[in-house]
Specification:
Distance between the termini of chain A: 64 Å
Structural class of chain B: alpha/beta
CATH superfamily of chain A: MetI-like
CATH class of chain A: Mainly Alpha
Number of helices of chain B: 16
Distance between the termini of chain B: 24 Å
Structural class of chain A: mainly alpha
Radius of gyration of chain B: 28 Å
CATH class of the largest domain in chain B: Alpha Beta
Oligomer: heterodimer
Strand content of chain A: under 5%
CATH topology of the largest domain in chain B: Rossmann fold
Largest sheet of chain B: 6 strands, mixed
Strand order of the largest sheet of chain B: 6-7-8-3-9-10
Number of domains of chain A: 1
Number of strands of chain A: 0
């Protein structure tokens, strides 16, 4: 009897509806998705194979070490770690995978920032935008990352492009949130001063609010980059190349050794990226 | 024509402000309105006018609405009702573009916590107002540097605000406001965050600046001494209401109500009141017409032991004592010249009581108040003490 009360409504076809919507989106916006897939795919291929893989590993390692050296305020720690870590990845024969992963992380992060910062600004300025985007951000962050792979495949097929798409959805929220927070945190005094001198909205934003919020926004971007990196393994499930793919195939074949090696590669990359972005932030703050 | 004139300027924070305005009309206090509607009255029907070139001080304790009022003047806070006429234009009804223009050209603001942009150098801070008006780089830099030199910071152009002391930071705030060459400076508790010595120094400099540049300054403060030092006129606020507007003297001497009286009770009156306020009409004899007999007669009538001697043009000649006059009368002398004493201390009407203390302490006679050697009045010890106590007879009619 009691159970019947719960059954008084038949199963609501949420999954069917989602599929219908996705199909509809896919068909209706095919003119949009297909060129994105093609051009973006070409771009990524160009970045990974045309640029990064054409840089001799030794030059790449030295470049990273130099960047690490200068952003840490001319200290040797991170630079030395970069040299040893990247050499180890090279030594294990994962250089190409590394370049693919770097491409995925860089492009996903870049897009996240390009999309996330303006949305964050909008949220900080408009109550309506804040009310609309806040739950969407929560949704994006709490939905298991795997779920994004499904529409990504539906829209973009398999490979690097859907990988970036899934990473984008997963990694953008911190940039949006921190941008919003950073601008809201700008001291009321300074906002008043900007207004009192007759600044336009844009002048206030670019001359006062964004410079003041920079440290906070950079912290958000750091988080975004790390999240994009954490998507590397998951994105490999839909055919995104890179270190993640090695981890995945090791998992499928239950071979601990290669899995560990590829995993270590991701960790090394994560540490280098994290420390470099954090130090950029500290230096400018 | 006044440069700024507000009429019924009001601000209510909260919802349904129209209804709150009606309650204000009925004369309910801020507290009663808060209880009834949950709304806070920021400013309640403030009407005043500020003349060009004066320092107009708005004074009140915290929560009196003075900071809200100054923000209504440049519409950093939107008024609920009333008008703000600046050069005859109503700021309250302006569109955004005109408002921005007015803020850029007519008035600049100086903030209590300086509100300098920490990511910009000192000179870049001073440039800000001109930069957003798209003044060419060279020109705005020149103007910013001039403003910084004016406030004595010529050597710190390329430092960041964080490297400067509080007093210096506020000078930058002042320079930033002056660089725009506004007609009106709005100074919101500009010196309150500074330590007392620096504050006094800044007050002096502001007075100097104002007298050389002829800016109109609206100065917010909670410090009565500061208000009295700076203000040509002072508006006293309580609970959002302007309770009295007047010159420092008027406020001190004739407080409009108990609140103002309480407020001014602790002021060091000796620094405000001058000889002019405490002097009495003197008893005199005319050296050309009168002799010792008349002098003695007048002293007896008034019960005093000495009397001032003047000539036909009211020029002060000196004084005679009762003792001397009595001796002279016995000798049947008819001349005051022989017994005239000239060692009487003189002050002019602007001398503050503070300075009179020392003079009157060392003197056996009352102090004469003279202007261009014309006798204006006399100060006796009793009057000084009474005026300090705050309940003496103070001659405002003279003012």
């Amino acid at each position: 009897m009691l159970n019947n009360m719960l059954d008084f409504v038949p199963v609501i076809p949420i999954s069917e509806a989602t599929e219908a919507v996705t199909d509809w989106l896919k068909d209706t916006f095919a003119f949009l998705f297909d060129p994105i897939k093609e051009h973006f795919g070409n771009l990524m291929e160009f970045v990974a194979e045309g640029v990064l893989m054409n840089i001799p590993p030794i030059i790449f390692i030295i470049l990273v070490a130099l960047i690490a050296f200068f952003v840490t305020g001319k200290k040797f720690g991170l630079a030395a770690f970069s040299i040893v870590g990247l050499w180890l990845i090279y030594n294990q024969g994962h250089w190409e995978d590394l370049m693919n992963t770097v491409t995925l992380v860089l492009l996903a992060s870049l897009l996240s920032v390009i999309i996330g910062v303006p949305i964050g600004i909008l949220m900080s300025k408009s109550k309506v935008a804040n009310t609309i985007f806040a739950p969407i951000l929560d949704f994006m962050q709490t939905m298991p990352a795997f779920v994004y792979l499904i529409p990504a495949v539906a829209f973009f097929g398999i490979g690097m492009v859907p990988g970036v798409f899934a990473s984008l959805i997963f990694a953008t929220p911190p940039t949006v949130r921190f941008t919003n927070l950073g601008i809201r945190q700008v001291s009321n005094d300074l906002v008043e001063a900007a207004d009192a001198f007759g600044s336009t909205g844009a002048q206030k934003l670019f001359k006062v609010e964004l410079p003041m919020a920079k440290a906070t926004i950079m912290a958000g971007i750091n988080q975004t980059v790390m999240l994009a990196l954490s998507m590397v393994v998951i994105a490999s499930m839909i055919g995104a190349p890179g270190l993640g793919k090695e981890v995945l195939s090791s998992l499928q074949r239950a071979s601990v050794g290669p899995g560990f090696v590829a995993g270590i590669g991701i960790v090394i990359l994560a540490i280098i990226i994290d420390r470099i972005t954090q130090n950029i932030n500290r230096k400018e703050a | 024509m006044p440069i700024i004139e507000t009429k019924n300027l009001s601000k209510v924070f909260g919802k349904n402000t129209k209804q709150t305005l009606k309650l204000m009309d009925k004369g309910l206090t801020k507290e009663e309105i808060l209880k009834e509607t949950g709304n806070t009255v920021g400013v309640n029907r403030a009407s005043f006018s500020v003349e060009e070139g004066e320092i107009f001080v708005i004074m009140g304790l915290s929560g009196s609405g003075k900071s809200t009022l100054v923000r209504l003047l440049n519409r950093l806070i939107e008024p609920t009702e009333g008008s703000i006429l600046i050069d005859g234009e109503d700021l309250a009804t302006m569109d955004k573009k005109s408002l921005r223009k007015a803020r850029r050209e007519k008035m600049s603001m100086v903030f209590q916590q300086f509100a300098l942009f920490p990511h910009r150098t000192i000179v870049e801070n001073a440039e800000y107002g001109l930069e957003i008006q798209n003044v060419p780089k060279e020109e705005r830099k020149k103007k910013a540097e001039e403003a910084l030199k004016l406030v004595g910071l010529g050597d710190y152009m390329h430092q960041k605000p964080g490297q400067l002391s509080g007093g210096m930071q506020q000078r930058v705030g002042l320079a930033r406001a002056l660089a725009n060459d506004p007609k009106v400076l709005l100074m919101d508790e500009a010196f309150s965050a500074l330590d007392p010595l620096i504050r006094k120094e800044m007050q002096d400099e502001l007075i100097d600046l104002q007298s050389s540049m002829k800016k109109t300054i609206i100065f917010i403060t909670h410090d009565l001494d500061e208000a009295l030092r700076l203000g040509d006129h002072i508006a006293l606020m309580k609970d959002g209401v302007v309770v009295q507007i007047g010159t420092p003297e008027e406020i001190l001497v004739n407080p409009a109500n108990d609140y103002v009286e309480k407020f001014v009770e602790d002021v060091d009156r000796s620094k405000i009141l001058t000889a002019h306020h405490i002097m009495k009409r003197p008893e005199t004899v005319n050296i050309d017409k009168h002799g010792p007999r008349v002098a003695l007669e007048r002293m007896r009538e008034e019960g005093i032991s000495s009397i001032l001697v003047i000539d036909g043009k009211r020029d002060l000649k000196g004084y005679v004592t009762a003792e001397d006059a009595s001796a002279a009368r016995k000798k049947e002398s008819s001349n005051l010249q022989d017994i005239l004493r000239t060692d009487i201390p003189k002050v002019n009407p602007e001398t503050t009581m503070h300075d009179i203390f020392a003079i009157i302490h060392d003197s056996q006679t009352p102090v004469a108040v003279v202007e261009d050697n014309k006798l204006k009045g006399i100060i006796v010890r009793g009057a000084v003490i009474a005026a300090l106590a705050g309940d003496g007879e103070v001659n405002l009619e003279n003012a």
